[in-house]
Amino acid sequence: MKLQGVELRRVAMPLVSPFRTSFGTQTTRDILLLRAVTTSDRGDAEGWGECVAMSDPLYSSEYVDATADVLRRFLLPELGASADEVDRHGAYAVGSVLHKFKGHRMAKAALEMAVLDAELRTEGRSWARELGAVRDRVPSGVSVGIFDSIPHLLDVVGGYLDAGYVRIKLKIEPGWDVEPVRAVRERFGDDVLLQVDANTAYTLRDARHLARLDAFDLLLIEQPLEEEDVLGHAELARQLSTPVCLDESIVSAQTAAAAISLGACSVINIKPGRVGGYLEAVRIHDLAAAHGLAVWCGGMVETGLGRAANAALGALPGFTLPGDISASDRFYRTDITEPLVIEDGHMAVPSGPGLGVTPILEILDSVTTATEWIPL
Ligand SMILES: [Mg+2]
């Protein structure tokens, strides 16, 4: 398989409603998509990659302009120079070819995703089969942002429960934690699967306050402390009965192994973009399974492309908790692919070649703000 080139395509997708987390509010999703064009003795193919970096470096150090820059300046030229390895090993060569460049995992993940999609479409194999999926559908959870008032929150949560979502995740921050959780429990009862996500908004000094959440039988508390504070999470985990889950801190299988050894988490939120790609995500899944840890698939406000890929990942056997794999209409009135929907609280895992979904050109063009073809 020869890589002819990659198109960088920037899109701006308006959200159905503002999404507020402890690090900021999004109203439009600014996304970098990659279209890899390949040729082989089986014919030409196109593969799609979605970069999950956001406009500003608030979730992590990466941001969209930086991912485009590092792809243009370093990652794509390096991949072009390593054409023989890509030819021999396909997408599995991408991670090792790019390994010498530090960080920039979201950019690397998008490139690997595009190459793997092209490869699988060429061979007629599905993303789910390639990753090791064992289910045809995955339970769908939803991530609920921070609101100005509890009544507004309860309305929104009620809507998601009516829509069939099987698990609710509340974003929290100092000043918006115990009371919203209490209100949701009181209104909707103890049977609702409920968890919280702090996106690094607390410090270890908040341990006693966070322990008040123990009363609400939460599935987990996600990333309460800073990304680099793995030891702090280990200490906090000893002080809480609520299981501690790591998101931002886990950037590779290696950091996952260290966090598990230190007792910093008993659950891991796996986001392929954060860890450098779907292949590394599978390695973390395998590692966690070997240690008896539960994992689930997080979300980064993806389009249908990333959403389809995440559904396939979430169908691996170790994904024992519902992921943030919500329907397209959770975030977008019109998705760039056929919309992914939930039925009975579950999303069907696409089974067609590659990602199993393809952008609809008319829609894609209508949200595209820039394109750039980079021949390799
Ligand atoms: Mg999170």
UniProtKB/TrEMBL annotation:
Pfam family, one: MR_MLE_C
Alphabetically ordered keywords of this record: Lyase, Magnesium, Metal-binding
Signal sequence extent: none
Swiss-Prot/TrEMBL cofactor(s): a divalent metal cation
A GO molecular-function descriptor: O-succinylbenzoate synthase activity
Mandelate racemase/muconate lactonizing enzyme C-terminal domain location: 150-243
Alphabetized InterPro entries for the sequence: Enolase-like_C_sf, Enolase-like_N, Enolase_C-like, Mandelate_racemase_C, Mandelate_racemase_N_dom, OSBS/NAAAR
EC number: 4.2.1.113
Protein name: o-succinylbenzoate synthase
Gene: menC
